Structures are given as structure tokens and as C-alpha cells.
Amino acid sequence: MTTTTARRSRAGSLAWMSRGVCLDRGDLPWIAEPEQTTAWERLTMGALCQNCPVRTDCAGCASREKVTAGFWAGRHRDAEVPNLFAGPGWAVDPQPGLGGLGGLGGAA
């Protein structure tokens, strides 16, 4: 009985996954090794995660479960892969003189 209760409890705690944006994008390599993904794929997955309604749940689960692989809550969980969305970024933060275009170019 304890095993059944534990399984139900765990299943209930993962119900949030059914609302993840990633479910509709099976074409992306969410569980691939970092070296098997392109920069475009990582940026696309990160951008999708930015607006995902369950991003907080996803990050909490990855942290709680000590996930060390795959793309979770906007970043790859391999510690050796840089987080593209942490800190200033070329396409995220506007740069002085670029009219708010960040690193995308343009004249002031």
C-alpha cells in the first residue's frame, strides 16, 4: 500500500508537466546531449521556456530531483553547458546607442 500511495503522490506532483509548452514541440531535442544540439535549437527551446506557464514548476522539479541532463526550465541541466539566458545577453539586453535593439544591429 505504501508503494501505491507513493506512486500516486509522485504522479500527482508531476501533473503540471501536461501544461508544458515543450509538449507541443517534440521536434526539438529536449533530452539530447548538449553537443548533439545546435545553438539555434538551444535558443529556440530557451525562448519557448521563457513564456511557459509551468516554468517555475519545471525548475523546481529539476532542482529537487537533481536533474543533470536535458533541457529544463530554459537551460540545459549539464553543468558544463553555459546558460544562454543568464545575465546580459546579446539579443536580450539593449545596448547603448542601438536604439533598444540589443546586439541585433542598427544605427543610433
Tell me what you see in this structure:
- The chain is mainly α.
- The chain is 31% helix and 4% strand.
- It contains 3 helices and 2 strands, in the order αααββ.
- The chain has helices at 2-13, 39-50, 55-64; strands at 71-72, 75-76.
- It has a two-stranded antiparallel ribbon with strand order 1-2.
- β1 and β2 form a beta hairpin.
Give a brief rundown of this model.
It is built from three helices and two strands. It has 108 residues and is mainly alpha-helical.
Number of helices: 3
Q: Distance between termini?
A: 68 Å
Number of strands: 2
Biggest sheet character: 2 strands, antiparallel
The string of secondary-structure elements, in order, is: HHHEE
Query: What portion of residues belong to β-strands?
Result: under 5%
Helix percent band: 25-40%
Strand order of the largest sheet: 1-2
* Averaged pLDDT: 76
What structural class do the secondary elements suggest?
mainly alpha
Radius of gyration: 17 Å
Anisotropy-based shape: globular
Low-confidence regions: 1-8, 87-108
Write the layout of secondary structure elements.
Layout: H1 2-13, H2 39-50, H3 55-64, E1 71-72, E2 75-76
Antiparallel strand pairs: 1-2
Supply the key terms.
mainly alpha, 108 residues, disordered C terminus, single chain
